Amino acid sequence: MHVLILGAAGMIGRKLAEALGRAPVVGSHGITRLTLADVVLPATPPGLEDRTDCLVADLGQPGEAARMAALRPDLVFHLAAIVSGDAEANLEKGYRINLDGTRALFDALRPNAADGARPRVIFASTNAVFGGDMPDVIGDDYLLTPQTSYGTQKAMCELLLADYTRRGLLDGIGLRLPTICVRPGKPNLAASGFFSNIIREPLVGQEAILPVGEDVRHWMTSPRSAVSFFLHAATLDPATLGGRPNLTMPGLSVTVGEQIEALRKIAGPRAVALIRREPDPLIQRIVTGWARAFDPARARALGFVAEAAFEDIIQAHIDDELGGEQPGLRRAS
Amino acid sequence: MHVLILGAAGMIGRKLAEALGRAPVVGSHGITRLTLADVVLPATPPGLEDRTDCLVADLGQPGEAARMAALRPDLVFHLAAIVSGDAEANLEKGYRINLDGTRALFDALRPNAADGARPRVIFASTNAVFGGDMPDVIGDDYLLTPQTSYGTQKAMCELLLADYTRRGLLDGIGLRLPTICVRPGKPNLAASGFFSNIIREPLVGQEAILPVGEDVRHWMTSPRSAVSFFLHAATLDPATLGGRPNLTMPGLSVTVGEQIEALRKIAGPRAVALIRREPDPLIQRIVTGWARAFDPARARALGFVAEAAFEDIIQAHIDDELGGEQPGLRRAS
């Protein structure tokens, strides 16, 4: 099986490639070839050095989607996109890359279907397809009302994916990912960054800024779970999707206060003391427009699993990013 | 006020232009100029002969959207599209006209907003944005899961309209129209055609074919109500839309059996006897995938009104298309 990852240099794309390197099978199919593409050169994962090609490609440029499709992948993980803030600041760039790039990819893959090779395409969507006035818990039948251009572009791609899949041109599955927490790396300026910052930084003895109240509730999952969603989706029987190939992924609905209590349990009061309150009305207002909780019954019935407690999300970060230890702090216990 | 109707040669577009000719005001604004555009030359409506321009334009062709925007309309009724069967048979044509044409229009109008002239755009969407497994009655918060490329293209345009409206680039409102009944003109091959055929043809003494069972339930409104939806939308205060500019329009949920009973009441048993049962399993299957009823609470609260009984829909047809009389039959009463 030839697997193509688009957006392979991103955080989830890289972890997905590494997971395939550790276990180079998808269902009952061994991975015979792995192609990694991104706007910067992706890294070859350990375990697949002998069969990995790394490419620089920008789906938003003419001809690039056709170049990817000509590689005739059996399975495409499509995670390439510009992020929410960039798409909001740059209207045309966002539509060109996030909508036109995805559409160009789907269109380029269509002739493969006509040749009898209908590729499975796992598309990274987002819970930002929801927004505005919403119920406390959003069910699988709830209307998509994105309040950002990024969410709009992802929702439009979901519709295209469903139509092309219905027509037999692709074998598509869309995954609406929760906010990823704990995001590794440095603090960034994304409005959602603090959800990760207030855990990741104190765990290594660094201060983190909390710009919102502790009662803010949000929907999260670990990078590890996000990778597991893509791998699980790759093995699903399309007949189980009932003609609705876009799925809200499971996650954990927690308040900032509950995040902090979980940090206290795992890393003690010295870690919690590193969280500095600096209320930011703009971020508070943005965050208030985001979904707080979902009831992803369809995804759960299909076998997608996420963390059940925020302590598990912290522990996944400690295991996967800190080698099982907290460099800056002793364990509280 | 300069009003532009795109798709002005179509059935609803033509009736909309005629309604503006009868009452050339929108809210408190007189119509100073009317531009009618379509792929075939539209007709000038009586009452606005001195200020109407009729154009041939295909939004799916390069430069055409810019030509329309350069006319600097204050109010755009966008009804231009290829129909469901055509979009299903011709994948690329459907996306080019129904999606790219609409997007080109919205993009061409953006610079007008930058100049301080944010045009109101009333977009003709459809209840075909719903499909597949659905509840008996679909509420305003229900997920869009179109089962045709036409419905997909309309749903994608709704998202784009909402995003551009949120960003202040347009002042958009999308109207999800029910199936129009009674459609004037000759019987056509559209799968939904029989809903109109079984009323229109018997009223003029002609036979009509009924390809489905009498228990088939569907969501309909008259051409007269559809025109009233566009006119009402043109006067709405955008602040009342609560950030959700796409609205399911009111209609009437009736079974084929109820349609026939209404015909019997108005035109008598001789008319009903002209309906010939010829079951068509394909049409029965297609129709089963369509929405049966809605609870369009938002649109009703905003003042959109449709017929409350199918007799009213038949009477609207007799009044508007048959000059108040039935040429082929005497009244039953």
UniProtKB/TrEMBL annotation, chains A, B:
Question: Which InterPro entries does the record match to this protein?
Answer: DenD, Epimerase_deHydtase, NAD(P)-bd_dom_sf
Q: Which UniProt keywords apply?
A: Carbohydrate metabolism, NADP
Gene3D superfamilies given for it? NAD(P)-binding Rossmann-like Domain (3.40.50.720), UDP-galactose 4-epimerase, domain 1 (3.90.25.10)
Q: Which SUPFAM superfamilies does the UniProt entry name for this protein?
A: NAD(P)-binding Rossmann-fold domains
Task: Name the Pfam families for this protein.
Answer: Epimerase
Q: Which NCBIfam families match?
A: ErythonDh
> What is this protein's record name?
SDR family oxidoreductase
What is the source species? Gluconacetobacter azotocaptans
